[in-house]
Specification:
Strand order of the largest sheet: 1-2
Structural class: mainly alpha
Number of domains: 2
Number of strands: 2
Mean pLDDT: 93
Oligomer: single chain
Radius of gyration: 18 Å
Length: about 110
């Protein structure tokens, strides 16, 4: 469950809903609003802090980290994970790099036309 909380917070940063310096809900507030335990939310916040996504200031709360291009960093990480899966699947299917790149370009162009 803590992974879902982490993913939701990262998603809000990636789409620009929560910008650098944004004050996150307290651990207790988020636990109450999501119906999960305080321990689960605390673990999510600790992991996000370890990853550099948020910072916690004693007595003030947790904030989106003042890191250059946090939004871009998270988008890149997410896209890298997805593309790694696609590349691995293509390799298992016997496709080489040029064929995989060409296919990705075709799919992307088709998506833009919709």
């Amino acid at each position: 469950m803590y992974l879902q909380i982490m993913a939701q917070i990262k998603q809000k940063v990636m789409v620009g809903d929560w910008l650098t310096g944004f004050h996150l809900p307290s651990i207790r507030e988020l636990a109450a609003s999501t119906g999960v335990s305080v321990i689960t939310v605390k673990r999510a916040y600790l992991e996000l802090e370890r990853e550099g996504v948020i910072v916690t200031q004693q007595g003030k709360g947790s904030f989106i980290a003042q890191t250059d291009n946090m939004q871009t960093k998270l988008q890149d990480e997410e896209l890298d994970q997805l593309l790694t899966q696609v590349a691995e699947q293509a390799r298992q299917m016997g496709l080489d790099e040029p064929a995989t790149v060409q296919r990705l370009q075709q799919v992307y162009q088709r998506m833009l036309k919709k």
